Each structure stands twice: as structure tokens, then as C-alpha cells.
Amino acid sequence: MKCPGQDTQYWDQNAIFETQCPECGHPMEFFKDDATRRCGHCHKKIVNPKMDFGCAAYCKYAEQCLGTLPEEFVAQQEDLLKDRVAVKMKQYFGTDFKRIGHAGRVARYAEKIGKKEKANLAVVLCAAYLHDIGIKNAEKKYGSAEAKYQHIEGPPVAGKILEDLGAKEKLITEVCDIISHHHHPKNSETINFKTVYDADILANMEDCRGKEQIDADTLARKIDGIYLTDAGKDLARQILIQKG
User: Fold this and answer.
1) Hey, how many other C-beta atoms are within 10 angstroms of the C-beta on 52?
2) Alpha-carbon distance 55 to 174, whole Å?
3) d(CA 95, CA 88)
4) What distance in Å separates the CA atoms of residue 220 and residue 234, rounded to the nearest whole number?
5) Which of 46, 95, 107, 121 is the least crowded, having the fewest Cβ atoms under 10 Å away?
6) Alpha-helix residue ranges (DSSP H) falling in 94-146
7) β-pairing, 36-38 with 45-47?
């Protein structure tokens, strides 16, 4: 029996919808099971804002419905999850393009560092996209974006987003733990935490580049002292020193 979530005869009127390209505003048509489409005007590849591949692609009950899933399929589920998290993060921040841009940059750096350090990219990328998700409530409740308030407010928001997307409990727990102290590493941390930490530090230092007059040797020593992974140090030297 074909899963109703994948059978087009069960699709409702919302299964095919129009949206606007977030890059240029040109109208775009999506089917609910499209992963991405290219904008007909600016040709930018856009992730489906209502991504729905049919329940088998992401549903937490897919295994109960379809039986044991192949490892490749499980890996694909996690890969799709980070794209869906990115969309949710953008929706949550709305027009706060500065924070959306920062989260996207941290995710790009985290993916580069994580691949070299053999981190769990599903955890790393979800945490990277959501690491500052507590800022909005921190500013609303405390009038401050200080780290201690982000650490309090971030995990509940991130946990709800991941739970709604059907993420596994183990992944949710680890991502929320990273977010809960992402500015302040403990004495012993996982490679997943270290990857996100280094990516965030790199994005922040990149923003400050040019504002601080630091010579290359001093900056190199600073990188060696702050970053937690070898891949993070290499990427920081490449971006902050070699590219000037």
C-alpha cells in the first residue's frame, strides 16, 4: 500500500502553491514534494519553504509505517532536516536579515570545519542555524542580547522547531545542549560543540576584521589560543589572515 502522504490522489489544495523568490520577489510555483526549484527570473536555487517530500522523507513515524529504513535513507532524512531548519530559522527571524545572514555564515563555516573534523553534520548544522535563536526572546524579556539570556531562551525555541520537524529526541537534546552554552565551552566538549563554537567565533571575528588593528602574528596567536579545532584554526587563518 502506498503511503497516503506520498500519493498525489490524497494531496489537498495546498499541495501545489505559489510563493515569491526570497532573492528577487519573482513568483514561483512549488509542489509540496519539490526539494528546491530555480527562480525563473534570477535563477537562484530556492529551498521549498513548505518542504514536504511525502511523509517517508522526514516523518518520525516513517519507520513504523514502512519498516526498517536503509541507512542511506536515514542519512537523507537528516540532510533534509538541516535545510528545513534553515527555512524555519529564516521564518522565525523574519526581516532580521543581519541575524539570518550570521546564522547562514556560521552554518557554512561549521559544515567546512565539521567535515574535516568528522563531526555529526546533522547536529552541527542544526545547532549552527539555531545557535542564536534565543536572541529574539532575550531582547523581548530582558532588553538584552547578552549570552546568558540567549543561553536561557534559545533551547526552548530550538527544541520546539526541531520537534515540529520530527527530529529525533537524541538530536534535539544535543542541539539544545550546544545552544544552551554556545558562548562558554566547558572543560570537556564534543567535537560537535567545538565545531559550532569555532564557526561562530570565526563569523564574529570576520565581522570585526578591519575594526581592530592587529598584526598577522598577533592574530595568529589569538587564533591558536581561542579556537578549539585544528580545522577551525586552519579556516580562520585562511579567512582572517591570508585573505587579509
Assistant:
1) 20
2) 24
3) 13
4) 10
5) 95
6) 97-117, 121-130, 135-142
7) antiparallel
What pLDDT sits at residue 88? Answer: 92
Handedness of CA 113, 117, 121, 124 (dihedral sign): negative
Q: What is the mean pLDDT of the chain?
A: 85
Q: What is the pLDDT of residues 1-31, one digit of tens each?
A: 555 555 666 677 778 888 888 778 889 988 8
Closest CA to 40 of 52, 55, 24: 24
Q: Check if the beta carbon of residue 99 is closer than 8 Å to that of residue 135.
A: yes
Residue-level pLDDT at 7: 62
- Sign, Cα dihedral of 165, 90, 111, 155: negative
pLDDT (tens digit, 9 = 90+) per residue, 27-71? 998 887 676 788 989 888 887 777 655 555 555 565 565 555 555
What domains are there in the chain, each with its CATH number?
14-61 (no CATH), 72-241 (1.10.3210.10)
% residues pLDDT > 90 (the chain): 55
What distance in Å separates the CA atoms of residue 239 and residue 161, rounded to the nearest whole number? 32
Q: Grid coordinates representing 137?
A: 526572546
Q: How much is the pLDDT for 37? A: 84
Residue of 195, 35, 168 lying closest to 111 (CA atoms): 195
CA end-to-end distance (rounded Å), the chain: 59
